[in-house]
Amino acid sequence: MDIFQVFRDRRSIRKYKDTPVEQVKIEQILDAARLAPSWKNLQCWRFLVLTDAQKRAKLLDAFPDDNPGKKAIATAPVVIVVCGNPFESEIENNIEYFVADVSIAFEHLCLAAHALGLGTCWMGWYDEARIKKTLGIPSDIRIVGITPLGYPDQDPKPRPRKELREIAYFNEWP
Q1: Where are the alpha helices (DSSP H) in 10-96?
Q2: Could you give the dihedral angle defined by the CA atoms of residues 116, 120, 122 and 125, in that order, rounded to the nearest 10 degrees?
């Protein structure tokens, strides 16, 4: 699939088919994330892949009931907890680069999933402490996001986007 087509077509998926995701595809997606660039090539990201239904179900208490993605977590055949180790990164200009590094890897993961016919939904509204305790994630590791992963069972609408002229400036700030 053409990379620009992937950019145009990828959408957040919140409804999944009850079809297992092949291990080879999960590994391809994780490998795409692993190849992401990072601050000083420190590669601070970590990925906890949950394929066990009981472990995925334990996550649900960490999501607010009015979170629209909670059902996606409950029904997707795979959930990936995307983490970063702040101590394997640096701070420059008051920017904690582990967040940027993990975010780039997370986006690689989402785009690779779409290219393979799978859906994702970047979720950030959860109780991090509860998830860490439930899954045994060390206290010094930060959860940057979580995504369900699976075969989409929906055809999402096109997403509105600002025009390029509204967000990109050439040679001077307007």
Answers
A1: 23-34, 53-58, 70-75
A2: -160
107 has pLDDT over 90: yes
Helices then strands, counting H and E runs in the chain, come out as: 7, 6
Q: What is the pLDDT of residue 157?
A: 85
Q: What is the pLDDT of residue 102?
A: 98
List beta partners, residue 91: 96
| 66 C-beta neighbours (distance < 10 Å), count | 7
Q: Which helix (H) or strand (E) holds 49?
A: strand 45-50
Q: How far apart are CA 145 and CA 168, in angstroms?
A: 27
**Alpha carbon distance 141, 76 (integer Å):** 24
Which three-class secondary structure state does DSSP give residue 11? coil
Helix (H, G, I), strand (E, B) or coil at 150: strand
Cα 76 to chain centroid, rounded: 14
- pLDDT of res. 159: 84
